[in-house]
Design a protein that fits this description.
Blueprint lengths: L1 E2 L6 E2 L5 E3 L2 E3 L19 E3 L2 E3 L1 H9 L24 E2 L2 E2 L3 H14 L8 E5 L2 E5 L35
Antiparallel strand pairs: 1-2, 3-4, 5-6, 7-8, 9-10
Keywords: LIM domain, Metal-binding, Zinc
Organism: Acanthoscelides obtectus
GO molecular function, one term: metal ion binding
């Protein structure tokens, strides 16, 4: 009789899953981060612990780049907050207040390309669409990409090897 690597209980032959050199119950072979059931040989491991390839393993142990490999926002620990966010010394805007402002904004832009879509991801609102933000500025604000002042380097002479 074999023992499950996770729960150390007996594993019967008909239910045995072999992965990472160990025997597992089918319900014990799960991603350590998200709890998704895994198939032997079709998952990643880190220090002997199984993880699903996407998005958990890449998000936890892959390169620390935003959006590496997948939509990072789909990972359950993306954007996790320890305490409520603060804007200055006051608490964050109530969700109902934000929803009413978006509704008024979308009524103005109804049927045009200016509408904003919002959805909730991991308990946070994600706004999608063109959004004009005004802070009482009288002039036009140019972002770095639009008003880039870098000099363009051009080849001044041809190399002999290319003639």
């Amino acid at each position: 009789m074999w023992k499950c690597h996770k729960c150390q209980k007996p594993v019967y032959f008909a239910e045995r899953k072999q992965s990472l050199g160990y025997n597992w119950h089918p319900e014990c072979l799960r991603c350590e981060e998200c709890g998704k059931r895994l198939n032997p040989g079709q998952h990643a491991e880190h220090k002997g612990v199984p993880y699903c390839h996407v998005p958990c393993y890449g998000a936890l142990f892959g390169p620390q780049l935003f959006g590496h490999g997948t939509r990072v926002e789909s990972h359950k620990s993306f954007g996790a907050q320890k305490e409520s966010p603060k804007l200055g010394k006051s608490p964050a805007l109530p969700r109902s207040h934000l929803e009413s402002k978006i509704k008024v904004y979308n009524q103005y832009y109804e049927g045009r390309s200016g509408e904003i879509r919002c959805r909730e991801v991991n308990g946070r609102y994600v706004l999608e669409g063109p959004l004009r933000v005004r802070w009482g500025v009288r002039g036009v604000i140019h972002l770095k990409e639009d008003d880039d002042q870098r000099t363009v380097v051009t080849a001044l002479r041809k190399r002999n090897s290319y003639r």
